[in-house]
Amino acid sequence: MNRTAGRSSGRVVITGLGAVTSIGSGAEEFVEALRSARQGAAPISAFDTTGYPHHMGCEVPDFVPEQWIARHSSEELGRATQFAVAAARMALADAGLSEDGLRDRPGLIAIGTTDGESRDLDQMMQTWIENGPEAMDAVLARRVPVSRLSAAVARELMLTRVEAVTIPTACAAGNYAIGYGTDAVRSGEVEFALVGGADAVCRKTFSGFYRMGTIAAERCRPFDADRDGILTGEGGGILLLENLESALARGARIYGEILGYGLNCDGNHPVAPDLDSFGRCMRLAHEDAGVEPGEIDFISAHGTGTSANDVTEAGAIRQVFGLQPPPTSSIKSMIGHAMGAASALAAIACALAITRGFIPPTTNHRRTDPECGLDVVPNHARPADLRVVQNNALAFGGNNAVLIMSRYREER
User: Among candidates 187, 205, 9, 181, which has minimal Cα distance to 88?
Assistant: First the structure.
């Protein structure tokens, strides 16, 4: 990676947000949807759900890629890549920057994903089964490589002094990408980073969660005594990170500051989360950020709505924070589980919550599971003066990632 970006204070700030979600796209639509507890659940249209007992998901409605993609034909890109490109353009516009303004600056593009373009693979395999391999669409085959999620952003914005990397650490991949970008900016290796995650609803993932018995019938109810699983979702979330000096020099709006993050991999079980390991991950994040648990004002939970995840995550939170953790909510109750985009969209929600002074709710809530025992901010957004917030992400394979961000202050 280029090391000519020069010296900086090592402080990393968020100056642009791009969100493509089932409840609204762009920072303004997304924040209003979070405040009003909008629901993204609807019958799945991406594939035929005949034969499945459940058919609800959280798809992005009325997405028109041509509104955001100028240098590619939309047919060149799979749906997840389209989300990544669109969210990157949104983040750039939200930051008040042009692609020309970034072209000569060293930068990073890091996109996290769970499934890449598995939706295209689904279609190719169906064609193979029905008509043989020679009938498979060559255009779909070219769209499949996971590297395209980040490379397409670089090509769309014509950025050549960048490293473009795709990070496939499943449902924690968005936080992984943000952490990777934070390190690159903090060290002075790059001046900016476009980081986040993207995924699209696909039959493979829906079927996998169904076979594990974790697909909800109608609604996702994290931490609720009556929860019955996840709703698969989709979308893209990209944050523009800059060093503080760059942001101040151009008079940028600063949503917040990345204080630090923690990563670990417990390697204990292919799908079941490990309470002690996730507790260690939170402590690593606090140490990197230089904060104590008592300084955290709000936790954005991974909160999938499954029995195993919610009890384990809540137990790990109580292990680290004691008997009275801060308010802890899950936006998956509104947008579903967007896989590799999930923690990136949650990080965007955290940045908006800090700047707009509220905590997003956990919707569809009836009664909190006593085994969870958290203040889940049920059903309605709550006004709050947020200084430091925590964004949790857990993933299959034991990949854990916790991000700490704060309100920007001149002195730290």
Answer: 181
Backbone angles phi, psi at 111, to 5 degrees: -120, 125
Q: What is the spatial distance between Cα 315 and Cα 321, in angstroms, rounded to a whole number?
A: 10
Rounded CA separation 147/136 (Å): 21
Sign of CA dihedral 337, 339, 341, 345: positive
pLDDT (tens digit per residue) in 190-203: 999 999 999 999 99
Catalytic amino acids?
171, 302, 337
Distance CA 267, CA 263 (A): 13
End-to-end CA distance of the chain: 29
Beta-bridge mates of residue 215? 230
User: Closest by alpha carbon to 335, among 300, 309, 310, 311?
Assistant: 300
Task: In whole angstroms, give the CA distance from residue 204 to residue 266.
Answer: 25
Residues 141-188 have pLDDT tens digits of 888 888 999 999 999 999 999 999 999 999 999 999 999 999 999 999
| Residue-by-residue DSSP string for 65-127 | GGGT--SS-GGGS-HHHHHHHHHHHHHHHHTT--HHHHTTS-EEEEEE-SSTTHHHHHHHHHH
